[in-house]
């Protein structure tokens, strides 16, 4: 049986990983440990998704909104028709439950547009907006 391989995703590693794994045998345990630490840190700072309001009531409201607004709002602004899979808070709610549930603050987005918007707002992809130095001192 032929197994597909790719370069290990560990920074600087040139060894091969067997797909669907992203890491070579040497870096697989380290990557898993790093993933666990990142998940713990994220939950410490943000809380679980359920604690942030993304519960069964949200899932029902999200599905209803997507049925009413099935196309990605950002793609539509660009003249494209793409199926929406995410309900985005236009203005980040930052724990404000009134803003969280305000449907006029919702828009349907495709996964690509939602990821791009969230990364830009929340500091994803290394732009460093997630955690302030003050919050690191308080929690670290």
Layout of helices and strands:
Blueprint lengths: L4 E3 L8 E3 L9 H19 L9 H13 L4 H5 L8 E4 L7 H5 L4 E4 L1 H12 L10 H7 L1
Antiparallel strand pairs: 1-2, 3-4
Notes on the structure:
This protein has 6 helices and 4 strands. The protein is mainly α and 140 residues long. The strands form 2 sheets. Strands 1-2 form a two-stranded antiparallel sheet. Strands 3-4 form a two-stranded antiparallel ribbon. Strand 1 (5-7) and strand 2 form a beta hairpin. It is extended. It starts with a strand and ends with a helix.
In the predicted model, the low-confidence regions spanning at least 5 consecutive residues are: 127-140
Secondary-structure content class:
mainly alpha
Number of helices: 6
In percent, how much strand structure appears in the residues? 5-15%
- What is the ordering of alpha helices and beta strands? EEHHHEHEHH
Task: Give the biggest beta sheet.
Answer: 2 strands, antiparallel
How far the N terminus sits from the C terminus, by CA atoms, comes to 48 Å
Q: Radius of gyration in whole Å, from Cα?
A: 19 Å
Helical content, roughly?
Answer: 40-55%
Shape: extended
Q: Which key phrases capture this entry?
A:
single chain, 140 residues, mainly alpha, two-stranded antiparallel ribbon, 44% helix, 10% strand, extended, disordered C terminus
Brief write-up:
By secondary structure, the protein is mainly alpha-helical.
């Amino acid at each position: 049986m032929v197994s597909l391989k790719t370069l290990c995703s560990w920074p600087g590693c040139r060894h091969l990983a067997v797909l669907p794994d992203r890491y070579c045998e040497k870096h697989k345990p380290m990557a898993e440990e790093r993933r666990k630490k990142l998940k713990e840190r994220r939950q410490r700072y943000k809380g679980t998704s359920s604690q942030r309001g993304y519960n069964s009531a949200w899932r029902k409201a999200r599905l209803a909104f997507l049925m009413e607004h099935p196309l990605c709002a950002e793609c539509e602004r660009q003249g494209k028709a793409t199926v929406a899979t995410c309900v985005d808070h236009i203005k980040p709610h930052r724990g404000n439950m009134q803003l969280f549930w305000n449907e006029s603050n919702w828009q349907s987005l495709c996964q690509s547009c939602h990821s791009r918007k969230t990364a830009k707002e929340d500091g994803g992809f290394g732009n460093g907006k997630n955690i302030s130095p003050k919050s690191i001192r308080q929690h670290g």
